[in-house]
């Protein structure tokens, strides 16, 4: 397994299969939907099936044991099942999706080897969901969640971006996953440096504090130093006094208890210090950090070029917060001068990141 200069090994990769999406979420850092007629062959500017598989084989050579397939919306690719089926046997495969194409397809994805799924759901209300996603697909997403559960992908993680337009929906989403066996909630801190609109950002510590008061049990996950909050369903009549009886022998939760996790990278050096992933863009560029676009390296077409790009990307990784970005006297962040002259293979101003945190 390769290790960067900060002692972080790279054990996972995120592979964006497309930048196209059938949603147009207001917080997304991509502009435009692209061709969303339905699952289709890879477009000319997207990684081919063989190229994705070849890259995953190279990553596996370097000890990478997990891949998350992302987009855009990865299920717009008709070859998704083939890619999963051809992934190295002992590499765990997960996916982030909006869920609309899971009905009728989830079982085939599981048969191909998909093990886990994250589904984007930012609200429990049809009108609010439509306003956030610029789509009328609320019912389709709910059907997708059910299809994932029926196919055996539990626990299903629901991804919710927390920012001003959604902050008021957090309690209802927490109650929803606490009351429904098989669901977990991942609250993702809004990243204005990717999507703009800094006025939408909220103080994520307030969400942590609220969850700490609501939770029966709190634990810290080694990956990214994330906190997990185990929350009892209020509908089930559980209270904090029931916490000892709510924990199963393996440390999990009973059906009347849900897990909520916060992904809070903004201004968080600890998050970056525990990052063990690199990303591959839909058009074939490796990047060591979601936030940076000035160190992109093309993987080329051959196994040799992919190995070289992977080694270089890992060797040049730095934590975003605390190294690439450093604190100013007024508590803000600025780019470290040491990295202003770093050059990758592609103009960063022509590139938008593919996937979410």
Automatic annotation (TrEMBL):
One of its GO terms (molecular function) is metal ion binding. The keyword Repressor does not apply. The gene is moaA. GO terms for biological process: Mo-molybdopterin cofactor biosynthetic process. Its cofactor is [4Fe-4S] cluster. Keywords: 4Fe-4S, GTP-binding, Iron, Iron-sulfur, Lyase, Metal-binding, Molybdenum cofactor biosynthesis, Nucleotide-binding, S-adenosyl-L-methionine. This is Probable GTP 3',8-cyclase. InterPro entries: Aldolase_TIM, Elp3/MiaA/NifB-like_rSAM, MoaA-like, MoaA_arc, MoaA_NifB_PqqE_Fe-S-bd_CS, MoaA_twitch, MoCo_biosynth_MoaA/MoaC, rSAM. It comes from Halobacterium salinarum (strain ATCC 33171 / DSM 3754 / JCM 8978 / NBRC 102687 / NCIMB 764 / 91-R6). It comes from the Archaea. [4Fe-4S] cluster 2 binds at residues 272, 275, 289. It is an enzyme of class 4 (lyase). Binds 2 [4Fe-4S] clusters. Binds 1 [4Fe-4S] cluster coordinated with 3 cysteines and an exchangeable S-adenosyl-L-methionine and 1 [4Fe-4S] cluster coordinated with 3 cysteines and the GTP-derived substrate. Catalyzes the cyclization of GTP to (8S)-3',8-cyclo-7,8-dihydroguanosine 5'-triphosphate. GTP binds at residues 14, 68, 96, 157, 277-279. Residues 231-257 are annotated as: Disordered.
